[in-house]
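Incident log, structure service

09:12 report received: a user says their structure output differs between two submissions of the same chain.
09:20 pulled the input from the user's history:
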Amino acid sequence: MSPSPSSGEPRLAVVGNPANRRVRLFQDAVAAAGLPPAREVAWLDVLGGRAEFRPGEVVRVESPGEDAAVERLLRGADDPTRVEGTAVWYERFTSAVRELGRAVRKAGAQLLDDPDELAVLFDKRLCHGVLDLASVPVPPSPTSGPGAPPVRGWDDVRALMNGPGMRRAFVKIAHGSSASGVLAVETAGPGRVRATTSVERDAAGRLFNSLRVRRLTTESEVAAIVDALAPDGLHVERWLPKATQHGRAADLRVVVVAGRATHAVVRTSSSPMTNLHLGGARGDLNAVRAATEAAGGGASWGAALEICEWAAACFPGTHCVGVDLLPSTGWRRFAVGEVNAFGDLLPGLTGLPGSGAEGLDTYGAQLAALRARVGGEHRARL
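09:34 re-ran on a clean worker, output below:
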């Protein structure tokens, strides 16, 4: 029997692609928590205007990715490896989640992911600007915030990289994820440009995501890719030198649930991109904690987690976010690279000591926080 609205337990619905691993992992956590299965609402039904919600439901939004039919509707392209089309994807996705929000409110249900916040989280320029305005430490960027100049192609990027401290920069498509369309660019005078990227360009000039990180060594190669990416919108930020672990660049993905940092994983790589699907590897979290505490200068592991919670607080209507935390050389300072709406896919990772999520995966931690919130609301009504 499903919990009633007066039972103090949430009645769950999840918007996602039903066969996707994210939905399955969430349903596994629901079962482990002793709750009835979440009612599944397919993204295809949302995009087709057929989604329905019920009074009292608590609605979780999952990533629409990894489904060819959904991808065609959002991007208008059949090949999921193509890089172009993210501006169209963003427009259709944000429109869909706003319509989803209206449907949830009309039904008397609750949404765990604020549509307006999702629109910010999926635009790197807007997200960076919100974080910077809140004084969250972020890499300097000339493309976020009021009065940011348009970036129409390589000539604009090259001009921005002539600014102070910008000889090494990350160039990112504004609405990308998983390092799609990212270039780590280095300049050293006229004509001396190189970049590291997973983007590949075919003979027709089309761009594709690759699982192979490669090096571009001429300005013409870099310019061709940047010019092809520019119509979808570009974000440029200073490439901060990262701390290392065993000679590999290191950063962290920290999951923040209901305002509290609950999970963290170290990602290391021999390339500037630490994404695990691009050859990155999980590092030693205990070693990171020890290095941070030993760094001195006010650095501490607790302070690093507080920065992540500070970033998440900029999005109070979003139940869970994944924060990309960039440690500086020597582990003395940290900056926030990105905040990810769907950054909780870390199978098998259990909660940090003292987080309240010990023994729980990221989905279990979200359910525990949700149950505590719903239970508190129920007790307040009694």
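09:41 both user submissions now match this output. Likely a transient worker issue. Closing.
09:42 reviewer note: Residues 203 and 224 are 12 Å apart (CA to CA). The longest helix spans residues 86-107.
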